[in-house]
Specification:
The chain is mostly helical and 313 residues long. It has one domain (65-308). Helix content is 73%, strand content 1%. It is built from twelve helices and two strands, in the order E-E-H-H-H-H-H-H-H-H-H-H-H-H. It has a two-stranded antiparallel ribbon. Strand 1 and strand 2 form a beta hairpin.
Length: 313
């Protein structure tokens, strides 16, 4: 509402708005609206700038592995060609069917999981730690990006890499299945898509944890080669839990990789050693807890890179 004021020594009244005597700020209704509009515009601009930063960081991370196919895609291609050739073709013909499926068909979902989670984990952990080691990640931390934007960009890029590698392995496996005169059809596509999205996102998030907490490059190797991969190999990639003695079967059920491998296998073949829906809900819950942990620790861990990573002389 516009107020009026009387000039000193005069009976004239002016319709100028009141102002704060100390600052000259307009305290009228119009001034308040202008201030609110300015604040809203600033918040909208900050939000738009943050989203632009996320897109830029996401694009950088995707281009980082897309432009280096010899390091990103070629190694898993060669490794899985060997897996399918040796285990699927040479030995597979001598192995009895498992749950009514030829061995090469039974093997395919497990190898897809192995490639997906290994690459999702490796991409996030190596990229973040490499940035910490060379200190260029600090330019991202001091930018207007919030912690959740930082984590989201790395997680999405790493999940995309894991899914791309999984798709490549699936293509190789289907080629071997066709060459050996066998067939495979996706039994539960919704389960397959859901499990692939969840496990790639989960291990991308765990890769962020590894990249933030690693002290040197050996830590990354230990986590991937001596923790992740062995758990996957003993997670039912090459065998069904039904062939194990009761004691070892019960022990295997404590391995989280069993549920991932069997979830993807259920999506492909409609067969699983565990309840797929329960496994999907559990991993979805774990994934939802990993990302807030990363957001809470991002700034603190990166800010300590100088004292933790650089050797003292």
């Amino acid at each position: 509402m516009t107020g009026s004021r009387t000039a000193p020594g005069s009976d004239e009244r002016t319709d100028a708005p009141y102002t704060d005597g100390g600052t000259g700020a307009d305290t009228s209704e119009g001034g308040s609206l202008l201030g609110t509009d300015a604040t809203t515009a600033a918040e909208a601009g900050q939000k738009a700038g943050g989203l632009t930063g996320v897109r830029a960081l996401l694009r950088r991370e995707i281009l980082r592995f897309v432009r280096r196919p010899g390091n990103t895609f070629l190694p898993p291609m060669i490794t899985n060609v060997l897996y399918f050739a040796v285990f699927g073709v040479i030995l597979g013909g001598r192995i009895d069917q498992i749950a009514g499926f030829d061995y090469i068909v039974f093997l395919l979902p497990g190898l897809i999981v192995l490639g997906t989670i290994s690459n999702a984990f490796e991409n996030a952990s190596f990229s973040i730690f490499h940035g910490r080691w060379n200190e260029y990640i600090e330019t991202v931390i001091v930018s207007p990006l919030s912690n959740w934007m930082f984590v989201a960009a790395y997680v999405v890029a790493s999940a995309i890499r894991g899914l791309l590698v999984g798709a490549i392995i699936a293509t190789i496996g289907l080629a071997f299945v066709t060459v050996t005169n066998r067939s495979i059809a996706v039994a539960e596509p919704l389960y397959l898509v859901a499990f692939m999205l969840v496990i790639s996102t989960l291990f991308a998030g765990l890769g962020v944890v590894g990249g933030l907490w690693a002290r040197d490059f050996d830590y990354l190797t230990v986590m991937n080669q001596f923790i992740v991969r062995p758990l996957v190999f003993f997670g039912g990639v090459f065998y069904s839990l039904d062939v194990l003695p009761t004691v070892y079967r019960l022990l295997s059920l404590s391995n989280p990789m069993v549920y991932m491998v069997n979830g993807v296998r259920y999506g492909f073949l409609g067969y699983s050693d565990v309840e797929p829906l329960l496994a999907l809900m559990e991993f979805r819950g774990v994934t939802r807890h990993v990302q807030p942990f990363n957001r809470a620790n991002t700034a603190r861990r990166v800010s300590r890179c100088d004292t933790e990573l650089r050797p003292t002389v």
